[in-house]
Amino acid sequence: MKLICAGITDVGCSREHNEDDFYLSDGEEALCIVADGMGGHRSGEVASAMAIKAIVEYYRETMPQVVNGYQGESVGEGDEERDLDELRIHEALQMANRAVFQAAESDEAYEGMGTTIVSAYFTEGGVYLAHIGDSRGYLYREGSLEQVTHDHSLANEYVRMGILAKEDVEFFPYKNVITRACGLTDEVEIDVNFHTMQPGDMFVFCSDGLSDMVPDRELVQLLDDTEDLEVLCQRLVDRANENGGSDNITIILARVVEDEN
């Protein structure tokens, strides 16, 4: 199997500048990252760019076979056992968290800055997803769309606790309040999960500028619309802006196809 990817970022209709950022690997590492910065003019865009830079540098400076002195297929024992690729993506996001936090601590101009992150590392066996905040990952398979990340948001916590109905989230006045972000503390809890993949699968990674503006039913219709990923990225941005464009919009599409070689 091989991967075909495209990405785009757009300021939206309401913001004066873009605090989002994204990364698509142009090397051997099949790495996709979306970051949605926060903290106001300059500091939000600094946080998202800095976090991505830290993740990419970590991947470039480490080898898949050797991480933190461990070699082999897994490390740890029992419930603590971790696949090396899982350990690697987890440590990459911790490095990003520390980089943003230390920059905010050392420069008053960046005080309080942070970013959400959703990062994907593709291997032969599947994809490892790691995220902090409410930037999302979706899996689109055979006409069905599934969110494969869990929003770290107040609204999602209220839904989990039964305080808020899922269908009422879009009307919840604090739906954009997040409960975790990269760079706000010296350590952060990171969710990591693994998904197998098959030819025809498409993964969607996005900031909330897309997910807040384009409901899942519209997203499915658009994902069925064309095979050209760059065209599809632009259509998704256009739809988000048509629906209000209240935030910056960033999208990565990654399609799994048969390797003909």
Automatic annotation (TrEMBL):
| GO function terms (MF aspect) | protein serine/threonine phosphatase activity
PPM-type phosphatase domain ranges (all copies)? 5-256
InterPro entries recorded: PP2C, PPM-type-like_dom_sf, PPM-type_phosphatase-like_dom
Q: Which PROSITE patterns match?
A: PPM_2
Q: Which Pfam families match?
A: PP2C_2
NCBIfam families xrefs = Stp1_PP2C_phos
Protein name (database record): Stp1/IreP family PP2C-type Ser/Thr phosphatase
